[in-house]
């Protein structure tokens, strides 16, 4: 038997080592902080043009890196008439029907057959999926039975687009070098690859979710302009009635998320609220556990001592310039803040290459509000250089998990203002009675509310005593509950137990 290339196969979708941000920072933290384990990295991206050079230097305990782009699954050969394996397609249909019921799992023997047949001659190859009679029969049958709106052409191409990457995942599972266990840092396509590998190779499988992938895809899909709903105007909220195609995409991500929950043990979240969401979405409670993010306090000692005696009137939003961070609410809040505090500045600090159109819209909003001299786009920066120059950290996101940037701000002596998403409220106000006794380390505001954001920011920046109380609470909170050493100890134990176990029959 071939010796494993590494202890842990890390399955990474759209993050490390090509994209900077909270999840990528966490991955780098785990790899460098646990040098006793070796890692093989499998990176999944959309299309190659979306990514540039690697943003991280790989540590010496990374023994393998392979990169795959799922949009490559659209490369087609010339159609050739094929019958297709009707039994294999029937298994897929049965699995899909299973998810339409209340059952939260698929029988292991059925799932094993589906995953074993995926991409295999005699099972369902990519060519079978695209061109076989059996595939055509399944697609047309489901359209006639269930479709309630779009034309067959729209339905047909949606099914093709949705399922084509699965054959790339099957190929990766066939050729990926041997490891002792796998760890995916999301559900989605990385989680589905984990499910396939667990089924085919019987690997122990750890799943960590920072945000809830399915929830975040719902937000993205609610706003996706590339999906054409029958109605002319779609109210872009999570509660809006959406068209059939949009619902198909949502259901697809729900299903592959459930498959990951079925295969993984343990299933890790960053805070209790997300753990409850995982259980609600199909995870077995006894497999779930919470491991909060943690940071190195020593790394920020010099940042803390560099803080000036005078409170800077600078508000910083540190994060990617993308819609989920709701940069526009921060910009609108700055207009109100500058009306009351003319010398205030807003700094937007983070990569701008992920969604150029949104970046342009944000810059145009700054210009339309007359804030060109007050709001600055600084791009990616060393956070240690930026934080001492800020008087308040601001997060206006519409979705977060447990933001590292809040912990880094606390360790640097900087209070935070954040929207009421993810774990932000417990980070700012405390997670239990003992923690809440430390007092608030800033303020929590509603989503997409520039006025509330501005009011809370002005209250903190104008009241020196309130600001220093928030600073003290944040420092003590991160020291007690969110240290890097606690996080490393938790994952060291998870990996140790995972590598010792054999998967239950």
From TrEMBL:
Gene3D superfamilies hit by this protein: Glycogen Phosphorylase B
CDD domains hit by this protein: GT4-like (cd03813)
Domain DUF3492: 6-285
Name of one Pfam family that matches: Glyco_trans_1_4
Stated name of the protein: GT4 family glycosyltransferase PelF
Species per Swiss-Prot/TrEMBL record: Microbulbifer taiwanensis
């Amino acid at each position: 038997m071939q010796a494993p290339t590494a202890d842990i196969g890390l399955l990474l979708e759209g993050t490390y080592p090509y994209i900077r941000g909270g999840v990528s920072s966490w991955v780098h933290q785990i790899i460098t902080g646990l040098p006793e384990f070796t890692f093989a990295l499998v990176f999944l991206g959309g299309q190659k043009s979306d990514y540039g050079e690697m943003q991280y230097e790989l540590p010496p305990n990374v023994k393998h890196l392979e990169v795959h782009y799922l949009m490559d699954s659209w490369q087609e050969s010339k159609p050739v008439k094929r019958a297709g394996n009707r039994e294999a397609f029937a298994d897929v249909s049965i699995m899909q029907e299973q998810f339409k019921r209340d059952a939260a799992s698929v029988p292991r023997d059925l799932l094993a057959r589906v995953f074993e047949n995926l991409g295999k001659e005699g099972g369902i190859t990519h060519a079978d999926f695209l061109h076989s009679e059996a595939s055509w029969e399944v697609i047309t049958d489901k359209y006639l039975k269930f479709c309630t709106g779009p034309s067959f052409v729209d339905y047909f191409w949606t099914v093709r687009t949705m399922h084509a990457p699965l054959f790339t995942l099957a190929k990766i599972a066939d050729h990926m070098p041997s490891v002792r266990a796998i760890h995916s840092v999301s559900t989605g396509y990385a989680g589905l690859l984990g499910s396939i590998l667990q089924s085919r190779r019987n690997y122990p499988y750890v799943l960590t979710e920072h945000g809830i992938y399915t929830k975040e895809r719902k937000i993205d899909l609610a706003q996706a302009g590339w999906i054409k709903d029958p109605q002319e105007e779609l109210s872009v909220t999570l509660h809006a009635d959406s068209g059939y195609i949009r619902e198909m995409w949502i259901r697809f991500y729900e299903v592959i998320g459930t498959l990951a929950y079925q295969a993984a043990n343990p299933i890790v979240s960053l805070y209790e609220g997300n753990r409850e969401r995982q259980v609600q979405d199909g995870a077995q409670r006894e497999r779930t556990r919470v491991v909060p993010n943690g940071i190195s306090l020593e790394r920020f000692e010099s940042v803390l001592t560099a803080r000036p005696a005078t409170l800077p009137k600078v508000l910083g939003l540190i994060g990617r310039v993308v819609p989920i961070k709701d940069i526009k609410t921060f910009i609108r809040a700055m207009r109100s803040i500058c009306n009351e505090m003319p010398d205030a500045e807003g700094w937007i600090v983070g990569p701008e290459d992920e969604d150029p159109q949104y970046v342009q819209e944000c810059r145009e909003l700054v210009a339309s509000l007359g804030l060109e001299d007050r709001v600055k786009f600084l791009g990616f920066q060393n956070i240690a250089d930026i934080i001492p120059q800020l008087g308040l950290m601001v997060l206006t996101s519409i979705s977060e998990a447990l933001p590292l940037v809040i912990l880094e701000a606390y360790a640097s002596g900087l209070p935070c203002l954040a929207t009421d998403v993810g774990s932000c409220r417990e980070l700012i106000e405390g997670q239990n009675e003992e923690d809440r006794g430390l007092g608030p380390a800033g303020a929590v505001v509603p989503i997409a509310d520039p006025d509330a954001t501005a009011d809370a920011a002005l209250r903190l920046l104008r009241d020196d005593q309130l600001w220093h109380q928030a600073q003290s609470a944040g420092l003590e909170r991160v020291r007690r509950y969110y240290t890097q050493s606690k996080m490393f100890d938790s994952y060291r134990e998870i990996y140790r137990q995972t590598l010792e176990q054999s998967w239950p029959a």
